[in-house]
Design goal:
220 residues, alpha/beta, 8 helices, binds zinc ion
Length: 220
């Protein structure tokens, strides 16, 4: 799309498509399209008056990709179409979609819309992309607030993994709260998970018969 001060938005004429993107963009963490920072790409002429005009730089919204990535994941190397129909028949629809409640009003609506549009176009079968949606709970800071850098209540997994080991941290995260409810983080609670992992380890290593398994390292 091209914007002219006099004629507003107009589509690029068909005989000038495709509009090719520049190779020399700079990827900076601005939150904006890198095309906006490119010195020349956005400058063009108005299809109506041929006067100076600018191109739309938000060329492909992130929701465009998140609406159908699950289809491409079925066959990422497939080059005869957006996805391999045989893989589609085997895997789709998605059994369970796990995601935050914050996606309910945008991404998830778009995904369903895409699916139904693709269905109407004869590209996919079935009415729904997913059979079930589950919203996971949130792990809050120890103060009961949402974790945020500005509040200084973020619990960094790397620190815990270094101290307790990845298995203990994973076990604790899996079991410390109801999956769909979430809860405030509890630094003391992880000791229980550590003890449990140690018990499992000891059970296995102490009861291992003589032989190869006996060469496994001891926990203590
Ligand atoms: Zn114009």
């Amino acid at each position: 799309m091209v914007n002219c001060e006099i004629h507003g938005w107009n589509p690029v004429p068909d005989d000038q498509l495709p509009v090719e993107l520049p190779e020399d963009v700079e990827w900076r963490p601005t939150g904006e399209s890198p095309l906006k920072l490119h010195p020349t790409w956005k400058n063009t002429t108005c299809p109506v008056c041929n006067g100076p005009a600018t191109r739309e730089t938000d060329t492909m919204d992130t929701f465009m990709c998140s609406s159908w990535y699950h289809l491409r994941y079925l066959s990422p190397k497939y080059d005869k179409g957006p996805f391999d129909p045989a893989e589609y028949d085997y895997w789709m629809p998605v059994d369970t979609y796990t995601g935050g409640i914050e996606h309910a009003t945008m991404h998830l609506l778009y995904t369903r819309f895409f699916h139904k549009a693709l269905r109407d176009a004869g590209i996919v079968k079935g009415n729904e992309p997913m059979m079930q949606l589950r919203n996971q709970g949130m792990v809050l800071g120890e103060d009961g607030d949402k974790m945020s850098k500005s509040k200084g209540n973020v619990i960094a997994p790397d620190v815990l993994v270094n101290k307790y080991g990845a298995d203990s941290v994973r076990a604790y995260i899996m079991f410390f709260a109801r999956w769909e409810m979430g809860a405030p983080w509890d630094s003391q609670g992880i000791e229980g998970a550590v003890r449990w992992v140690k018990r499992v380890w000891t059970l296995f290593t102490d009861s291992a018969a003589d032989g190869e398994t006996d060469k496994l390292p001891r926990t203590r």
